[in-house]
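Weekly structure sync, notes
Attendees: PL (lead), two postdocs, one rotation student
Agenda item 3: pending single-chain targets
PL asked that the sequence for the first pending target be pasted directly into the notes so everyone works from the same version. It is reproduced below exactly as submitted, 198 residues in total.
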Amino acid sequence: MGFILGITGGIASGKSTVVNVFKEKGFPIVDGDIVARQIVEPGKPALAAIKAAFGLEVILPTGELNRKKLGEIVFQDSDKRQQLDRILNPYLRQQIKAEMAFWKNKSPLVIADIPLMYEGHYDHYMDEVAVVYVDFLQQKKRLMARDNIDEKTAEAKINSQIPLAKKRALADTVFDNNGSKEETVQQVLNWLENHFEK
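Predicted structure, written out during the meeting:
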């Protein structure tokens, strides 16, 4: 049976750098963001539930979800955002668990890339959780550069998540991404060497 390593971080913390190392080594990745997009494809029950709750205005003429419209609705209203989370949560959880179970029988190591690992209590399904950590100033600087946004917007985005310092305290493993990309990659390779000599 495969070992499930959950990987999480914060916005602009460098999580994809870490996940890509595992991907390049050939380990299967269960990506929470991809699953979240798949469960709202046309014909899926989660999309029907969103349509029932938010109306036809969030559905494009093609039958696909109008992400922009839905985003506008939920970002202005925290009650609506919580409602959307409540609708999506069971579908998302079911699909993520199904994918992890599928890969667990096929690979010695499965990576579960879940942005809201602790917020959604996905840590209970993991054998170990790794947090990709950067300090607040570094995170803010990277986010401003990546998304071309001002300091205030960057801080608001970061503050909407559980602080990375808190996630770091909960983690089994920490990949410190304050240094260079090469240093971060080396930490991942060291972890692999200690746990999984392929």
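Discussion points:
- The mean pLDDT is 94.
- The first strand starts at residue 3 and ends at 8.
Action: rotation student to compare against the earlier draft before next sync.
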